[in-house]
Structures
1.
Amino acid sequence: MDWQEISGNWVLVPPRPTAIVHFLGGAFVAAAPQVTYRALLEFLAEQGYVVVATPFVNTFDHEAIARQVARAFEQTLNYLQNRVLKRRYLPIYGVGHSMGCKLHLLIGSILQQERAGNVFVSFNNFPARRSIPFFEQFSQFSSAFDVEFTPSPLETFRLIERHYLVQRNLLIQFTADDIDQTGSLMEVMLRRFPDLTTLHTLKGNHLTPLGQDLKWQTGSAFTPLDAIGQFMRQEVFRDFNHLKRTMLLWMNPLASM
């Protein structure tokens, strides 16, 4: 399988697709998801999922970004259904990491888009002051920096609780993730769809979904430091593989790895 660009999205189409994944990444790594999330997305394609990864650049207007990525996805979906899938119906899952979770939540709250379910990994909904590096320092010198994301964190939760339409949801948080807000999202989702919302807490951190390999070059002699490096590499892959297995089994309970 090779990556192809369709209507601004990066797409993988397996030989015998069984479902479609619309992927949205985190704020500072979402501009090139086919690179930053390559391991995770190619794994999903190997399991039979058409992957449509929509890049975006973060701004303060998150609702506008949500509408933009939704339009881009629909354009690519229309192309795939006409040229590749031949109008064959496949269920669609939204998968988001960090800010990508918020965008899928907004799409599910303000737009009428069909989803078989959504997967939210390391949900983040912090205000601008905490999300943007050096924002606090700049805002001290100019009122022009006294701004907030649209919708704000509080407005986002209100939208979800009142209007979010996707009933089946998987929430994933990691034990060593100090910027995760999945617990707050879980409270809201349980009020919205208590019987169809699932939470998993896995080992890992906020960067685990990127699944990047740790290159550890040993010297001529194997040292205790080399042993620590190899142990860290094994731990990273163990956490990443657990994430992949958790996502896959939720989307397809009959799947095996």
2.
Amino acid sequence: MKIQTECVPCLLKRIIFEAEQSTKDKKTKEKVIQNACKALSELYDPDECSAIIATKVHKIAYDILGDKDPYKHLKDLSNKVAQSLVPRVEELIKRSDDPLKTSILCSVIGNTMDFGIDGGSSHPNVLKDLFEKYVYDGLGYDDTQKVKVLLKKAKNVVLFTDNCGEIVFDKILCRELKNFNPNIFLSLVVRGEPIISDATMKDAEEFRFDEVVDEFLTTGCFAIGVDFGRMPENLKKALEKADLIICKGMANYESFSETDYLPVVYLLRTKCNAIAKSMSLPLNINAVKLYK
């Protein structure tokens, strides 16, 4: 996705948010904001991918803060909140006539956890407050049946994770993908380095994804979404042979929508007007949209 005008205040708002998470020093926060604004004014290009610009601006902020993981507390808390909801998710799946679809819905609801942006969460506990409502709402855009057709024939599937918290539900989704087609080789991709509230290898190992996937991969570097120019060779090979790519969250959409990788299905909550418009979807819905 190309950067949109509304991405500018959103990105700056997140930069301010992460500075406040990292330090109480007023001068450091001012320096972060000043340098982020300067960088954005120089980098802004309507023909450039939003994720690439955001990555560069975040790198400047992290370097000034001297903090490799300013969201660490929120990430840990998000995982704990999601874990507290696992019994309810399992109950919904057990009662469902379509366990895979239900696990997809719950995984998408987990994408609500996103901080420092309009449409995101003010606190991890918000997920507890909204979970039942979003279950009731269901999928506002639903390509699940089309996805199932591809999954039945698939041999290699690659799943890109997004935020902490929701990764707890992603493990259940991975299990149900394997239950639906035990023959698929399922690759899980996490971020190569901590960036915003996204999951890393630490989370994949902590939640024992080795029980439900066949291999762990990373994006290989500090990047919002995926930096395809710097991704590891093993990830490149996995994408080349993938029969289906599953992308969680908005950042992965921002990245992958600029590539020719197909088929790809996006599982996300449309929290952002720019994303919603780009995907031709309503704002604030649970969505499963397939491109092939």
